[in-house]
Amino acid sequence: MTTILPTTARLAIDGGPAVRSADRLWPQWPVPADGVARNLDAVLQSRRWAISSPLGTGELFERKFARMFAQYTGTRHCVPVDHGSSALVVALEALDLQFGDAVLVPSLTWTACATAVFRAGLLPVLVDVDPRTGCISADDLDLDVDARAVIAVHWSCAMADIPALSAVAEPRGITVIEDCAQAHGARWLGRPAGSLGRLGCFSTQNGKVLSAGEGGAVVTDDDALAPVLEELRADSRRYRSDRGRPGELELTESASRMGANFGMNEFVAAILCAQLGALEDQHEIRNRNYALLTELIAGIPGVRLLRPAPEQDRMSIYELPVIFDELPGGMTNTEIGEALTAELGRPFYPSDAPLHNSVLLQPWTKPALAPLTERFVALHKDRTYPHSTFFAEHAVVTHHSTLLGDKQDMADIAQAIAKVVAAGTHRAH
Ligand SMILES: Cc1ncc(COP(=O)(O)O)c(C=O)c1O
């Protein structure tokens, strides 16, 4: 195994020699899978570019992807949508809640988790996360706010303990929605992410491990929720059950719920059908490299990789958090990220700002949200989020494609971490 030797060399960010030479390239992302170009061409030629196209011959890619992704997630139903954010909106809308009902959202996540709640006419209530995984745990469920749902985000490479959350939440009328935007293919005691909660929401945006630029999906085992989700994402329409006449649409105005257009277009579905075929191999490479990197940095004081709960038997790494329990020489994690980026020629950066500090979450900029905003501001005045704050200040992350590299790439990362820690410690003395 490569040995990581301590170094006293000047940091690249201070003008010293970088750990990695600029001519060594990193993996790029996204990686077009076999068959993508063929599928896209088939869509072009079919002239059915949306699910609301006139009937034609052959199965829509959207239908095919829905089948494939339900199978991948071990669920009975998959309803594809245009974005992960829309997946959250329709999942919340499907629950038939009242305007202003509270929904628990972990602070440590992307802004869409909270903005989707507002978009559904509901009130997000931010809660802290588990200090080990960065995901919401049963202990974080605030039972005082009388919430009707919780968005349990699987964060970065770790999963929330959905069975434990459900055991507390569901008997109290709090529906558990899994947010799997960062967890396609992760498994908890053998069960895939998305199949553990009442509903599972996915994003297939450009950076995600399953990507088509944009896109998303909701999965569920609930036979009653599935047709509602279908209508909510297609202007109150569902797929027709009869064969229809030429020129008619594939969708019929079933209209049990007022929906909006959140439909996945055929180009996105065509890409996803091919990309899904590459996902398992990519998981394997990333997880092998994660194990190697864990070994390589084991001797560096004060640093570790985020470790999922023991029940999580397969990781899906979206971003890899390197946790600096001790910030070397008083450097901030932003400075550590900049130093690593300069050593490696690959972006390392703090994770997204937690929502209680995020400039992206500003409901008061939308006058129509005023009744919710007033309650949102009052509710959050005295809340604290020590564990989210810890991750926000001590984690430095890199995109999952960094882990699609080889052993030498992992050795470079470990070497750069060792160098930054040594330099920081040296500076402090
Ligand atoms: C945890 C989480 N939820 C939801 C979303 C929203 O997905 P999209 O960007 O596809 O709307 C994201 C996307 O970054 C995410 O990371």
How does this structure look, described?
The structure is a single chain. The chain has 429 residues and is an alpha/beta fold. The protein has a domain at 36-276: Type I PLP-dependent aspartate aminotransferase-like (Major domain) (Aspartate Aminotransferase, domain 2, 3-Layer(aba) Sandwich). 33% of the residues lie in helices and 14% in strands. The chain has helices at residues 36-46, 61-72, 84-93, 112-119, 162-169, 225-232, 266-296, 333-344, 370-380, 386-394, 407-428; strands at residues 77-81, 102-106, 123-127, 147-153, 175-179, 187-188, 191-192, 199-203, 216-220, 238-239, 251-252, 303-305, 312-314, 319-324, 395-399. The longest helix has 31 residues, at 266-296. The protein is globular. Bound molecules: pyridoxal-5'-phosphate (PLP). Residues 83-85, 109-110, 112-113, 153, 179, 181-182, 203, 205, 216 line the site of pyridoxal-5'-phosphate.
List keywords for this structure.
429 residues; alpha/beta; Aspartate Aminotransferase, domain 2; 7-stranded mixed beta sheet; 3-stranded antiparallel beta sheet; 11 helices; 33% helix; globular; binds pyridoxal-5'-phosphate
In short:
By secondary structure, the chain is of the alpha/beta class. It has a domain at 36-276: Type I PLP-dependent aspartate aminotransferase-like (Major domain) (Aspartate Aminotransferase, domain 2).
